[in-house]
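Deliverable D5.2: sample structural annotation.
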Amino acid sequence: MKDLGLAIRRQRKLLKLSQQELGRFAGCGALFIHDLEKGKATVRFNKVIDVIKVLGLQLTLEPGKLGLKVRGV
């Protein structure tokens, strides 16, 4: 989750959005964005997808080892 959080933070910064702005666009709060960027493991997945969409990122699932692989981190 930490790598996912870092990728989300990097994209948010690239788009020059505050955590509050991103949260508002994604329909969640700044605290959720903060927790997600810090790699909190218990965030709501449907909200993670909303954040990913707002940022123009893509989540891809593919066969492989257990774990999470985030490109560009």
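Annotation notes: The chain has a mean pLDDT of 91. The chain is about 55% helix and 0% strand.
The annotation will be released with the project's public dataset once the embargo ends.
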